[in-house]
Structure formats: C-alpha cells, structure tokens
Amino acid sequence: ELSDTRIPWIYGVALSMRSRLESEAADRKTVLQNAFTLMRDSRGSRRGYIGHAEYLDGLADVKAELAALEKDSEKEVELLEEAIAYKGRALESYALMDVMPTGLDEWRYPISASHYSEHARLLLRLYSLRKEPIHLERAIPVLEKGIEVAQKTGLVSRAAECYWQLGTIHDALGDPATASASFQQASQAYLETSQRIPQIKDLYSDYAGYMSAWSTIEQAKRSHNQKRYEEAGQSFDKAAQLLKSTVRWNRLSLNYSAWAQLEKAEGLSRKEDSEEAKDAFKQASDLFAEAKID
Q: Residue 41, SS3?
C-alpha cells in the first residue's frame, strides 16, 4: 500500500512521462513544470541514499527536458545548470552507497552506472551553448568515475560509452593523443561486450570498429599538427578502411580517403614536387566531391 507522501512523487513522474504525448511545445512545457513541482515537493517520501539520489535524478531529468524546450538561450543555460546541479548531487548520493554493507555490492553499482554519462552529456550540452572549456573539463572526472563504477560491476558497455565521451571531450580540448587513447579504450570495451553478448555481437563489433577508426583519426590529426603529412595520410587511410568495414558508418570512409589524399598532397607540396602535388590535390578534391554526393 502506498503512503500519502509517495503519491505526489509517483503522480509527478507519471506526468513527466505523459508530457511526451503533447504535440505542442508550450503544452509539454506546462505539463513538465507541473510535474517538477509535484516531484520537488515530495522530497520527504524519498528515504535513504538511493531514494534521495533517485529524487535528485528525477528533478535533473525534468529540468533537462525543460531546457531542451526553451527558446531563450539564456534561460536554456539557466535550466541546464540547474539540471547539472541536481545530477551532481544525485551522483554524490549514489557514491554514498559505497559505505553500505558488502552484501549489497551486487546491485548498488548497476543502479548508478548510467548516470555518470548522463551527467557528462548535460555538461556537453552546456558547452555547446557557452563554448567554455571549463564545462568539458568538469565532465572528465565524472566520466572517469563512471568508468570505475561500470568496471566494478562488469558493465563493460557503460565503460565504453564513457570512454567514447572522453575521446570526444579531449578532441574538443585539442588533445588528439589523449582522445586517440580514449577512443581505442572504447573500441576494446565494445569488442569485449560483443564477445560477452553473442545476440548483439554484430552491433557492438560495429561500434568497436567505429571507435577504432576515431582513434586512428586522432592519430592522423596529431601527425598533421606535427607536420608529418605522410604519416597522417596513412592514418586517415587506415581510418577509411576501418569505417568501410562497418555497417552503420561505411558511408564515411570516402571522406577520410579524401583526407588521406589531401595529406599526401600536402607532403608533396612541402617537398616542392609541384606537379605531383597538383595532381594529388585534384584527386583529393574529386574524392571530397564524391563523398559529398554519396
């Protein structure tokens, strides 16, 4: 039997789910605001570390949905920051489960494993609006903790997701070497997942190939920055082959073949081999045009 204090929380959660049926953004916003009020005011019904964590997590999710509906960019930022604050406090409560008796190990980590990547996604959304690197930097320790939690319970696919996000962040921060390492770790984690779950082996093998390609692309970027154009071209060509071997992302292979040719052209140009460089630039241009059409 439900206690009276639980009813507002349950009704609020149901209302937030019902909001997705609204076709008009304004109507959905109103329903979500009402849901948030009910959920916020039901605080006394969420007891214990996990109850408090779920309470804060639910509030964060509604604030994030409201931010996505907001047309005013400043208001969107404000709502996202509130969502991030709630999510951070939720993770603090999940972390307190570490002090629980050892016998509860088998279920406490899976509960919190996915929330670290969700927190990082909110920080990435805030970065996309503010373009302030501090938001990317804030996401790094969140994802590192997410990897630790996922590995404790054997949720390798969750670890892979965090490594993927780390690679994206380090790329945005202009650190291709660290990004490459993160993408390669994501690839290895997805490959391990594919071996553990035969029913979806092809899906995770595809992800592993995609992450391996991105690791190689980051190596190419680093070589380019160091003016090692031949090496960069070889890495881009390897990435193109890796992408070609995937089902979901094979259409991207031609684009990176073009980048490989462009690096070759740049190398020839630096060697003052003008005729060959001219031909190589023309081939790169043709490949980019073909990739765009494709």
A: coil
